[in-house]
Amino acid sequence: MTSTSPQLTGVRLLDALDASGLTGRGGAAFPSAVKLRAMTKRHTAVIVNACDGELGAVKDGWVVANHLDELLHGADLVRGLARGAVTFAAHRGSGTERRLRSAGVDVLDAPSRYVSSEESSLISLSQGGLARPMTKRSLYIQGGRDSTGRRIAPTIVLNAETVWRIAQIAERGPEWFRRFGTASEPGPRLASVGGYVGRPVVVETQAGVPVGELLAAARTPADAEYVLVNGLGGAFASIAGVSSAAWSREGLAPFGGRLGPGIIDVVDPRRCPLDMVTELLAYAAGESAGQCGPCMFGVPELSGLWQQYVRTPSARHRRALDINLGLLPGRGGCKFPDGVAGLAVNALAVFADHITEHAAGRCRYAARRTA
Amino acid sequence: MNEILWYTSRATGIVSIVLLTYVVVAGVIISGRRRPHGASPTILMALHRWIALGMSVFLLLHITTAIAETYVNINWISFVVPFTSGYAPFQVGLGTLAFDLMIAVLVTSYLRHRIPERRWKGVHWLAYGLWPIAVIHGFTLGTSNEWVLRLITLACGVVGLLAIAWRINARHHDRRRRDVILEQEWS
Question: How does the average pLDDT of chain B come out, rounded?
Fold first, then answer.
């Protein structure tokens, strides 16, 4: 370390994290200091999640590729508080996994699929189980049991960017951190901007910047029309509407979006967006862990009903789709069905005029392709 | 008096095995049903529970009278400790064994809301052990050489086995879907 200022550790680090207002960068935005304090009460295993599990996420891999030393330092600081082993989770076969292995750290290679990089999936996998979400009957930070009665040792899962930020705050202090972002969402943060762009990038940015600035950083072409914010559990927005909006909780709220894991995916304007949603929902249907009815039956059903509705948007097909969408949220063991249903509800609103086109037997995107 | 005890013991024994078989079959159907609809699952569950309770009354009477009557020598200790009877120690012991297992099943069921579901279920599986033991006890000990009684016990065995065979082959569409997904890469 080249810094001359003394490193913050232990209780003073926790206080600094409190003062900084750092929240989890995996998407849930839970206050990191609260989580770490809960962890210090007992010996806790640590999993640093660098899976980039959400569709379009690349930022945690970027942290591993570009700031590995600081990430490892952050992990050491957390280990000091947790008094347990530290493991780095990455998707099996990914470049991130290779980089972590060559750094000589303990790597948990998770199957490269959607729900496997979820917090409780990683905990289950790290303790010899399958990488499938567990019912959160207790907080696994305190340890507990899975649904089959298997004992789960106390484990904390922290997003890789979060751990990197911890190292930065320990070195530069909370005042430095608070210089970035907004009062309610402070600190520097990463955004993954990709899809139909000139140059997919991870932008080092902060809450409150205009979304258009992030799109410009990735050289988004002028003909792009829509973005998908935060992947499968996210929301669509028209670029015309969202680019002047602030990239923050308040700025994205009118679009049904949030900062989440910081993903902006530009939708290909040469393709029918309804077809794209069909593909996303079909993908979601195949990603169920097969543990709860709403997920293993409801999500495939949603996928089928959506396909039927966008092909022939009749009132009857819409009713069937609405019934499914009303039944999915709040019923699974994890929030996967909720996120997928939310995406479909959002797409119905954002692409309403295009659905009308389909109902009239036209699709301007199909015309565009043949032109 | 002794004769009344003896007849009561025979009668309550045969009633117990019939009721027990009903309880087992109802339980098998409850656990193996594919798509429960309407009130039928509630009714079936209520019958399963209440007939199990009713059966235990006949069973207690059967055991008490069997020990109390003096044609054959069965001690009170045989009420709960298997294979201690002076008379037909093995066959009577089977009855005691089934009774002990049944106590475990009944007690855990009355405490079901206070113990982990998987514990309750684990103990409830004992039913698949206790029922055949009880049937063998009834069939081999049929002391009254009444072919009707033997036939009833035999019929109970056949009906129960048919139900269990159905249960083994009954597949929830739920279970099937779980198995298909489980074959994917999860670890």
Answer: 92
What's the CATH class of domain A189-266?
alpha beta
Chain B CB contacts of A117 under 8 Å are: none
Q: How many CB pairs under 8 A join A and B?
A: 31
For B185, the closest chain A residue by CA position comes to A111
Q: Which backbone phi and psi does B115 adopt, to 5 degrees? A: -120, 160
Q: pLDDT tens digit string along B70-124?
A: 888 889 999 999 999 989 999 999 999 999 999 999 999 999 999 988 899 999 9
Instruction: Report pLDDT digits (tens) over B29-73.
Output: 998 876 667 788 889 999 999 999 999 999 999 999 999 988 888
- Beta-bridge partner residues of A246: A210
> Which residue(s) pair with A192 in the sheet?
A202, A263
Q: Which of B116, B180, B187 sits opposite A125 (nearest CB)?
A: B187
What CATH code would you report for A273-370? Answer: 1.20.1440.230
What is the least distance, in Å, from the CA of B33 to any CA of chain A? 16
Predicted local confidence at residue A4, as pLDDT: 47
Cβ-nearest to A290 among B118, B177, B187? B177
Q: Taking Cα atoms as reference points, which of A298, A344, A334 lies closest to residue A27? A: A334
| Cβ-nearest to B181 among A116, A293, A296 | A296
The verdict on a CB contact (< 8 Å) between A289 and B174 is no
The predicted structure's pLDDT at residue A136:
81
Residues of chain A with CATH 3.40.50.11540: 6-176
Residue spans in chain A of domains classed CATH 1.20.1440.230: 273-370
**Complex-level ipTM:** 0.79
Report the 3 state secondary structure along chain B.
Answer: CHHHHHHHHHHHHHHHHHHHHHHHHHHHHHHHCCCCCCCHHHHHHHHHHHHHHHHHHHHHHHHHHHHHCCCCCCCHHHHCCCCCCCCCHHHHHHHHHHHHHHHHHHHHHHCHHHCCHHHHHHHHCCHHHHHHHHHHHHHHHCCCCCHHHHHHHHHHHHHHHHHHHHHHHCCCHHHHHHHHHHCCCCC
- Answer CATH for A6-176 from 3.40.50.720, 3.40.50.11540, 3.30.565.10, 1.10.1670.10: 3.40.50.11540
Contacting residues of B for A297, CB less than 8 Å apart = 177
* Segment A351-360, tens digit of pLDDT: 999 999 999 9
